[in-house]
Amino acid sequence: MSITRTRRPDAVAAAAARPGAARLLWAMLATLALAAALALGAAREAAARGAPESFADLAERLSPAVVNVSTSQTVARPSRPLGPRLPENSPFRDLFPELFGDQGGPPRKVSSLGSGFVISQDGYIVTNNHVIDGADEIKVNFTDGESLPAKVVGTDPKTDIALLKVEPKAPLPFVPFGDSDKARVGDWVLAIGNPFGLGGTVTAGIISARNRDINAGPYDDFLQTDAAINRGNSGGPLFNMDGEVIGVNTAIISPSGGSIGIGFAVPSAIVTKVVSQLREFGETRRGWLGVQIQTVTDEIAEGLGLDAARGALVSGVVEGGPAAQAGLQVGDVILSFDGKDVKQMRDLPRMVADAEVGKPVRVTVWRKGKTHTLKVTLGRLEESEQAAAGSDDAPPALGAVEALGMKLTALTPERRAAADLPENVEGVLIEAVDPEGPAAEKGLRPGDVIVEVGQEPVRSPADVRRKVKEAREAGRKAVLLLVHARGDLRFVAVPLED
């Protein structure tokens, strides 16, 4: 008789000798192997997402470069409504000074707080323009308790970025910029700032969305995050997990003014270019094309014969501007700029702004069913030029017909005067609009002037009817009109009735 010293191997061997038990054993082993593989896969996936066990090391390393920006501004006291006239020694004056005091009063100082971050050891600091806008005095407060006066190097209201400079006694801790274009939805981010004046506060979250347009400016391309951003966080940095700044916290959507998990940051891809120009020139120097543009809708694309709604539709060209000199025309659809596809209208302003002033670029346009490539030498964007609506490339008129649910008539001098239309507006006058017709659905009104139909000038109501007929015979679902309405030129795609 032998003595078994190790029972488990013997038991396994015995079980394996029985066919049914063997199958059970292999099933158990396979289940354990699968569970181990799943656990390993989950661990690898978590590592790939960069989910940290703690943000403590990152926060400790980055916080010294994040600052509090304190501003003060002198403002006039608002006028107060006067109460009844009372003697100077009346006790009511002391009891109710807000009613019986003097109107207005001496100017008072208003203070506000924001955030910022150091980008160089010699004292350059980035913040939001709205944090320091109108300030008489700016102070930068550091985490070690030091406070330094700051001067404004330059500002850019269009992207809400400002660059400040302090004169430190010793090199300052600073943080580098990262590449916001590499940030993906779902990536972890860290926000450090000064919410509600509480001092350095750290919050964490993820990138919720990219390329957000919140109508804050002409170059909206925000990163959206659910990291808590509150009042006072403005101008603070949004970090990736490598400790690089990929955004400048700028705005939130909230009914109460507090964070509800919808915050927006200007991406570093925009900030770095702005900061570089402010640092070098004290101002931005953006490219300028000299066009007014609008979105290409599905109906407009159909009216133009485009395969899809893409590009930017030129609705105005600034007289004497770079686009006009290169031959761009009203009705062109800009499909690519400097070798990059213009997928949607709002892409173009950013492309042009990022381009070098004076640089010749190739612009591909869709014009009357064909593509054309033009060479444009960019100018420099200026407020007066940007505000220009563009020149009218319009035509003349004659007659009286009905089309597209409108009564059209010739634009005579008498009708021009009655409609209070400028002398340079020519075309066909809309005299009446059927409220149930397709033109009414698109917002056309009596007094509007049809300048072009299908990108061809119209000089009489008969011209309009002929062009509509041609569009219908070509199998189009809509016809494209260029209309002078309420002082502006705009394209309207009106559905063709069956």
From TrEMBL:
Its main location: periplasm. It comes from the Bacteria. GO terms for biological process: proteolysis. It is found in: Periplasm. One of its GO terms (molecular function) is serine-type endopeptidase activity. Substrate binds at residues 130, 160, 232-234. This is Probable periplasmic serine endoprotease DegP-like.
